[in-house]
Amino acid sequence: NICIIEKTKSCLHNLSVLLQISKNSIFKVGKNFLCWGVEFQSRDSRNFILGDNVLISYGISIWNGDGHTIFNENNKVSNYSKDVIIGNKVWIGHKAEILKGTIIQDNSVVGACSVVNKAFYESNVIIAGQPAKIVKHGITWDPRSTSSLPQKA
Predict the structure, then answer these.
(1) Residue 147: phi, psi to the nearest 5?
(2) HEC string of the chain?
(3) Any bridge partners for residue 26, and if so which?
(4) Contacts of 86 (CB under 8 A, 6+ apart)
(5) Which of 24, 93, 112, 151 minimizes the number of CB atoms within 10 Å of its CB?
(6) How many Å is the Cα radius of gyration of the chain?
């Protein structure tokens, strides 16, 4: 397994990366990663790839597999593990669940308590819900609190 965390100006609070049951998995995080409480669980040699300037809140679980095997009626495996790919400048709200096969594009936001279980190929969106879907297009976001920004009249 390979674990790469690029240079960051922030503290990494409560970061848990569990790769112990996988082989040849890659956990790669870009520059300026910030997290408050996230658990990554790897399965079956699958990967986690996160871009630059990713901000993750607390109570987050990110899994690239299910942990147990499910067979269909023909005794074939139906729940193979898949990579999780998160683009640049993505904000993941508290208590979100990010599951296998998730792809989140650049400059996007995942709403609090969302369950993301598929690939999203549009950037500048808010993804929210259970299961998650795009709820707003054409957004951008700033890591500063609204109280630190000038008030509009």
Answers:
(1) -70, -20
(2) CEEEECCCCCCECCEEEECCCCCCCEEEECCCCEECCEEEECCCCCCEEECCCCEECCCEEEECCCCCCCECCCCCECCCCCCEEECCCCEECCCCEECCCCEECCCCEECCCCEECCECCCCCEEEEECCEEEEEECCCCCCCCHHHCCCCC
(3) 2
(4) 48, 49, 50, 51, 54, 92, 98, 102, 103, 104
(5) 151
(6) 16
Amino acid residing at 41:
Q
Place of tokens 């996160």: 50
Distance separating alpha carbons of residues 8 and 31, to the nearest angstrom: 5
Q: 37-57: per-residue pLDDT in tens?
A: 898 888 778 899 999 999 999
Q: What pTM does this model have? A: 0.89
pLDDT tens digits for range 77-115: 999 999 999 999 999 999 999 999 999 999 999 999 999
